[in-house]
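Title: [Solved] Outer membrane lipoprotein Blc 3D structure

Original question kept below for reference.
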Amino acid sequence: MMTRTLFAVLSLLLLTACQSVPDGVTPVMGFDEQRYLGKWYEVARLDHSFERGLSNVTAEYSVREDGGIRVLNRGFNTEDQEWSDAEGRAYFVDERDTAHLEVSFFGPFFSSYVVFELGEDYDYAFVSGYNTNYLWLLARTPTVSDALLAEFLTIAEEKGFNINEIIFPVQE
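Solution (posted by the thread starter after getting help):
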């Protein structure tokens, strides 16, 4: 019985932690999911095991039948010389106009997806995970202006992300 209780408490703590938002990061309010849907290019990221070695990375968002959002991430594995796809599902943590979602690519395990900066025309997005180890610059085009890139790096550093670890995947 004690083991089950401990497991339940640890599971709840893990779920809560994975749905959290990094200190200093605030989800965009007034978020319009319909405008966010579609294809995005990954311009920059903090690298991590599930994207390591990938170039030409894109994310495509569409509506699921259950009201959630379908996430289709795609990238070219330069070592294996083949495309890699990962399909997931995302749901809003709170209100649908708050850009804080929980996303899962692996069964019942969810993690935070927080849009904390968004272009007025939904042409770029700064996205974090549940802590400052996860960061992306997404755009509707494969490249962005030097000014936007500088803004991304400045804001990321102000919010506690390690900008020295940011990589810029090839987009061809």
